[in-house]
Amino acid sequence: MARERLDKLLSSTGLWSRKEVKDLVRQGRVLAEGVPVRRPEEKYDPMTDRIQVDGETVDCAPFVYVMMNKPAGLLSATEDKNQKTVLDLLPQHLRRRGLFPVGRLDKDTTGLLLLTDDGSLAHELLSPKKHVDKVYLARVEGRVDASDTAALGAGMVLGDGLHCLPAGLEPLGDGSSCLVTLREGKYHQVKRMLAARGKPVLALKRLSMGPLELDRELEAGEWRMLAPEELEALKRAVGAQ
Ligand code: URA
């Protein structure tokens, strides 16, 4: 990883402004590899040099990756004038970094949402060409059956002419729930496909995105950083590693 100026590295965490970093350095509160930093312009490698402020190690990784269990009722957006967004669940220093959701879930959809400031990984994960499957658990009115599996598998054309890529549908139990697997993410896609089959969606939850599975320990509204192995698996899935 290229070396970067300390003031840039520390301010990009969202915890301090560049001016505040200057003051911290002047006050001798910043150490790099155990040695006090003299000038905020000095360059370090954020992946290998240990940077500490007031004795606490600071993670200066260039990008942040957050797994959230999205609750119903919040928009998958970065801001909205009138309504709460998923960003409202994150602390200020992460919001300041400019994290955004990788793909949108509807306001009433729950489950796995990845938030990051890594635009290029987000782009790859959303590209239908990369074949990153997203799996949803849907509860429907009525019962799904093998005819629905065949229809989604053939690639549906919706009423407005929208062509969907072939998708998976696995009925669960008595057919009032099912797993739907999409490789793309068109607006309200699961709801529209199942409504077109006469089985409107009553509740929808995303369970996984490629190799990334929703952590069952996360309650609705909770989040955590991705583990290094989860990030590596995602990058491998899009051929970025
Ligand atoms: N499909 C939908 O209909 N809604 C979502 O939130 C995600 C996929």
Question: How does this structure look, described?
Answer:
With 241 residues, this protein is α+β, with helices and mostly antiparallel strands. The chain folds into 3 domains: 4-57, RNA-binding S4 domain (Structural Genomics Hypothetical 15.5 Kd Protein In mrcA-pckA Intergenic Region, Chain A, Roll), CATH 3.10.290.10; 65-127 and 212-238, Pseudouridine synthase I, catalytic domain, N-terminal subdomain (Alpha-Beta Plaits), CATH 3.30.70; 133-209, 2-Layer Sandwich (Alpha-Beta Plaits). The chain is 23% helix and 25% strand. The chain contains 7 helices and 15 strands. A hairpin with a 2-residue loop joins strand 2 and strand 3 (35-36). The mean pLDDT is 94. Residues 105-106, 109, 136, 188-191, 204 line the site of uracil.
DSSP strand content: 25-35%
Round the Cα radius of gyration to an integer and report it: 22 Å
**Helix-strand topology string:** EHHEEEEEEHEEHEHEEHEEEH
Major sheet description: 9 strands, mixed
Our count of domains comes out at 3
Low-confidence stretches: none
Distance between the termini: 14 Å
How would you state the average pLDDT, rounded? 94
Helix content: 10-25%
According to CATH, the fold-level topology of the largest domain is Alpha-Beta Plaits
The CATH architecture of the largest domain can be named as 2-Layer Sandwich
> Which kinds of small molecule does this entry bind, naming each only once?
uracil
Shape estimate: elongated
The CATH homologous superfamily name of the largest domain equals Pseudouridine synthase I, catalytic domain, N-terminal subdomain
